[in-house]
Amino acid sequence: MENQNSNFIRDIMIKDLESGKRDTIVTRFPPEPNGYLHIGHAKSIILNFGLADEFNGKTNLRFDDTNPAKEDVEFVNSIKEDVKWLGFEWDNLFFASDYFDEMYNRAVLLIKKGLAYVDDLSADEIREYRGTLTEPGKNSPYRDRTIEENLELFERMRAGEFADGEKVLRAKIDMASPNINLRDPVIYRIAHVTHHNTGDKWCIYPMYAFAHPLEDAIEGITHSICTIEFEDQRPFYNWVVEQCEMKHQPQQIEFGRLNLTNTVMSKRKLKQLVEEGYVDGWDDPRMPTISGMRRRGFTPESIRNFVRETAVSKNNATVDFEMLEHFVREDLKLKAPRTMGIINPLKVVITNYPEGQIELLDAEINPENPEMGVRKIPFSREIYIEQEDFMENPPKKYFRLFPGNEVRLKHAYFIKCEEIVKDANGNVVELRCTYDPQTKSGSGFTGRKVKGTIHWVEATHAVPAEFRLYEPLILNESEEDDEGTFLDHVNPNSLQIFHGYVEPNMKESRPHDKFQFFRHGYFNVDPKDTTVDKLVFNRIVSLKSSFKL
Ligand code: ATP
Ligand code: MG
Ligand code: MG
């Protein structure tokens, strides 16, 4: 069962239903289509969709597309795909741009009520006039334009008579308000930009802080869940709903953002990593995007379980990446077939094994889930092992192969290293070993013990494969520390590529199949670069963990 920790937003919903303030729950997930979704968004998705589901309510997917310069249909499509993949279905799909007419009419209503005016100050002047936390703002010289003049100028803004930045429409509230967001915020700006949905119909666009409460009210949203940085915007949110005379009154509720260690999360920074070529696109397996995590091999269940375990609070929280890894291991433990793969091969010839003979050995598919059955793996005179499982001059407590030492081959026999073959440069290129037929796995042999067990792949049937191992993308702790300089902390070793071998039955694997490679961890068949001739495995996570829940 998925975790159902208590959270204060659910408590508000319960209270509102019990008191009769609301008779149903309606939420929305409102991404701006200016990038791909990331794991932080998953938290918002799970809160909005998850809570509405608990109360048999409804959730809209709404694209907050009021800033056409940065938005694109590519992002719209990826967002839809990611929400579905995470396991959620929206009741309605809306675009904020569908409401541009109504938003315009509400702005006109504000002008008619004397609550909005057209201002000719430049953006810099508006900022200057706004004042600071300790100093009140100053009124714009254009603040006292008549209603008629404002109506006419706003209409001419809409008709395209002015250039970008020449004029704005501002709410008329209070330039001395202790809340800077109430010092006559801009509610419409001019932007001669083609919109992905409305084309060239508009050259003025509503500002987010004005548009968002209207969108929520139009859709009958009961609980408008957003991140904590909007807390100071709440008075303006309520002002817009009230003064625009919206029938429905939504309630804004803020919660703390989810961040992860060793990555950046804001779309602006992720975009920079993509555009400057640090990663192979938004879906690069090192990215904290939903599409990157899917390509890496994280499952929707693991992401949901992880997010549900993080607290819902008023504070932004940076959660250890290892906690996410813990949840994917938990999810794959019983599902992923076990197999053996050699990432960095070293050839071994078993000199006393009959030439030309192949035998098929039994290997459990998942010892923790015996119902998954048994697979057959070939064994012969020639196998591959990992280079790191052999040392010519081992330190103490090295229990793997070295000259004269005996180890167990998983699912097979004991072998003993008799001879080393080197190339002209002195590199070890082959080992010559002997095996003991009595020690066959499953035979019940107890004659003697060995301390090391290593994995292997039979050489003549082995399937070549590429392995991609990952380290964190960013080398310092969290995004808060490094505003502006995060590119200096990009890990140059975040991707390592190896060419090795996998068991012959892996030939059948399909994109997104997940396996536990013995001793190496969980891997996903890469959906982008795997071809009929080339298998690519992305390491999702290693087996070792220091993380404790
Ligand atoms: P970013 O700062 O990463 O660009 P955003 O807030 O601008 O994110 P939106 O597309 O506006 O991105 O976000 C859609 C919803 O997801 C919003 O309600 C937003 O508050 C929420 N959200 C975004 N990032 C996080 C996060 N790290 N943790 C929790 N919720 C988030
Ligand atoms: Mg945004
Ligand atoms: Mg943002």
From TrEMBL:
Span of domain tRNA synthetases class I (E and Q) anti-codon binding: 453-526
Location in the cell: Cytoplasm
Keywords: Aminoacyl-tRNA synthetase, ATP-binding, Cytoplasm, Ligase, Nucleotide-binding, Protein biosynthesis
Residues covered by the Glutamyl/glutaminyl-tRNA synthetase class Ib anti-codon binding domain: 336-436
An MF annotation (GO) of this entry: ligase activity
Entry-linked InterPro entries: aa-tRNA-synth_I_CS, Gln-tRNA-synth, Gln/Glu-tRNA_Ligase, Gln_tRNA_ligase_bac, Glu/Gln-tRNA-synth, Glu/Gln-tRNA-synth_Ib_cat-dom, Glu/Gln-tRNA-synth_Ib_codon-bd, Glu_tRNA_lig_a-bdl
CDD domains linked: GlnRS_core
UniProt domain Glutamyl/glutaminyl-tRNA synthetase class Ib catalytic: residue ranges: 25-333
Residue span of motif 'KMSKS' region: 264-268
Binding site for L-glutamine: D64, Y208
Motif ('HIGH' region): 31-41
Binding site for ATP: 32-34, 38-44, 227, 257-258, 265-267
Key word Aminoacyl-tRNA synthetase present: yes
Family named by the database record: Belongs to the class-I aminoacyl-tRNA synthetase family.
Protein name: Glutamine--tRNA ligase
Species name: Neobacillus paridis
